[in-house]
Please model this.
Amino acid sequence: MAHAVTLIPGDGIGPEVTRATVRVLEATGVAFAWETFDAVGYKGVEQHGMPLPEAVVSSIRRNGVALKGPVTTPVGKGFRSVNVSLRQQLDLFANVRPCKALPGVVTPFADVDLVIFRENTEGLYRGIEYYDDRLEVADSIARVTRRGSQRIIRFAFEYAQAHSRRAITLVHKANILKATTGMFLEEGRRLAREYPDVTFNDCIIDNMALQLVMRPHAHDCIVTTNLFGDILSDLCAGLVGGLGTVPGANVGDAAAIFEAVHGSAPDIAGQGIANPTALLQSGVMMLRYLNEDRAADRLQQAIIDSYSAGAALTRDMGGTADTETFTHNLIARLSAQHQSR
Ligand code: NAI
Ligand code: MG
Model:
């Protein structure tokens, strides 16, 4: 039976990295029935007068799983982020971002291996904002709920236990934002008692930013609120060689969307040079979600082998290959693996 998966290529480099990822995923031998939606974001506005047509959301609800390229969000004005809308409408409360360097990639530290769990539906990032024209004052509301805090922190502990991770650091600003991130910390301390085999500690966000660029090995799993998680995940991507390789999953109780941490990269869009690795590694996470562990292992190994050999790497990784050459090379490796068994 083919897996029905909603496919959102997105814009900018989105269609380029998505095309590459679909080809590689199909080369693993797993059968997919893609439901593709091109008109999302500004293309959705152009074609249907809305950035996120209802058909996209209902397709994901039906299939329970989506693979998504980046979608551009206008800065300062214009339509609301499609990414934020999807996460909220589908209640995808856990954003999981593993940061681990691939072999041969030049990084500031060796052997960094972090997993970030970012609360994905609440906090400042929700964008509950008001502007008072008369007073010329802008307000933003960081709504944090006890239930929302509990479920992401529990998710992180369950993941840590299932993946034999050693520790969780909860990142907050509870010295200043006592009600919101204070409650988040309180829930972390309470839940930690239920998981005595996972070491728990906490750290204030600014201190964490310092520690991550000086002693990243001191940390293992990080659980934090939405905006802090957004910022720290780009920082951690930098620790393992850049945005080109870091995957992500947005997970809820009934659905999951797999997408890279990076955005639409307008500076290199349309040139055929984007690195598809981040979306490919999101594809590995998706294969596991679909219980296709064997295909996930094979694809992960093919990516690692590609990087170890240093062959056909894209420019952001110091190579000279374009997206097509990189993808072609990876598919050749997958089929060679297949034949050698
Ligand atoms: P960005 O992640 O698109 O790019 C930052 C830098 O990294 C650029 O120099 C870009 O060329 C490079 N880069 C990113 N991905 C790459 C890849 N796969 N291969 C090679 N180089 C890569 O961040 P930026 O420019 O701040 O955001 C652009 C747009 O993307 C914005 O509209 C933003 O809202 C949107 N965005 C969408 C996301 C999503 O759909 N989940 C996530 C993050 C941003
Ligand atoms: Mg981000």
